[in-house]
Amino acid sequence: MSKAKSYKSNVKAAIDETASDLYDVGLIDKKTMRHFDGSCLTYVHEFTGEEIKALCEREEVNQSVFALYLNVLSKDSVSQWERGEKHPSGTTLKLLALIEKKGLSPIA
Fold this sequence. Notes:
The protein is mostly helical. The chain has helices at 10-24, 30-38, 49-58, 63-70, 75-83, 91-102. The protein contains six helices and no strands. Helix 1 (10-24) packs antiparallel against helix 2, helix 3 (49-58) packs across helix 5 and helix 4 (63-70) packs across helix 5 (75-83).
């Protein structure tokens, strides 16, 4: 059973579908197919303190609840990010990008 893909746009969907068909008939290799699949991933960027604070406000949660959604140690981490003292990284950045795009419900 294959997992349904989500695309940034109809153009990306069409490109990926075409690439999949070309891969299926042997006209492109696995490495090229991985390149097309990678282009469908959620873009991850560095978040400023203001952006993180805006996400909390948009989602109507306090720092403690936001920390629980992100599975970070405490609200102090979120507070430090908001003040620019520290910066989220790794998986947390990916979760922030998903929250920015789709809200908290997909990770709840």
